[in-house]
């Protein structure tokens, strides 16, 4: 058993899961996060997932690919995913290195991410997001 602060938290809010990454994760920890989150989507029959990466000052290619994988698997299981809190320096580095979140929507913060899910899921059907949340 390890002690110390939690690296990731996954909280349930109604039909949504809110997953916050609190510190940089190595590849093994990122794989574990993916497995745990995907398992909880099924267990809670979640319709939406918010992944908060605001605490990260680096997001490498493996992390970015893992987020895309989570989003695609979640979609196949009936849940829509939005990534929130990408820091400006992280976004600049991702663009410079040609990395993206693919078809996963992004939002500025948790509040905007929840608004996005509420708007997209109000009609019932989950469809593929088209990138960043449009302004109201």
Automatic annotation (TrEMBL):
Residues 6-117 form the STAS domain. SUPFAM superfamilies: SpoIIaa-like. Gene3D superfamilies: STAS domain. It comes from the Bacteria. It holds the Pfam family STAS. Transmembrane segments: none annotated. InterPro entries: Bact_StressResp_Reg (IPR051932), STAS_dom (IPR002645), STAS_dom_sf (IPR036513). PANTHER family: RSBT ANTAGONIST PROTEIN RSBS (PTHR33745:SF1), RSBT ANTAGONIST PROTEIN RSBS-RELATED (PTHR33745). This is RsbT antagonist protein RsbS. It comes from Blastococcus tunisiensis. The lineage of its organism: Bacteria, Bacillati, Actinomycetota, Actinomycetes, Geodermatophilales.
């Amino acid at each position: 058993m390890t002690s110390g602060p939690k690296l990731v938290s996954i909280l349930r809010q109604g039909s949504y899961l809110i997953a916050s990454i609190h510190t940089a994760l190595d590849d093994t920890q990122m794989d574990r996060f993916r497995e745990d989150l995907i398992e909880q989507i099924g267990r809670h029959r979640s319709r939406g997932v918010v992944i908060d990466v605001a605490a990260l000052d680096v997001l490498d290619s493996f992390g970015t690919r893992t987020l895309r994988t989570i989003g695609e698997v979640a979609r196949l299981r009936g849940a829509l995913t939005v990534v929130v809190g990408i820091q400006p320096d992280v976004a600049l580095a991702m663009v410079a290195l040609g990395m993206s979140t693919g078809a996963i929507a992004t939002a500025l913060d948790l509040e905007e991410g929840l608004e996005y899910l509420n708007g997209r899921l109000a009609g019932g059907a989950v469809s593929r997001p088209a990138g960043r949340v449009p302004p109201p």
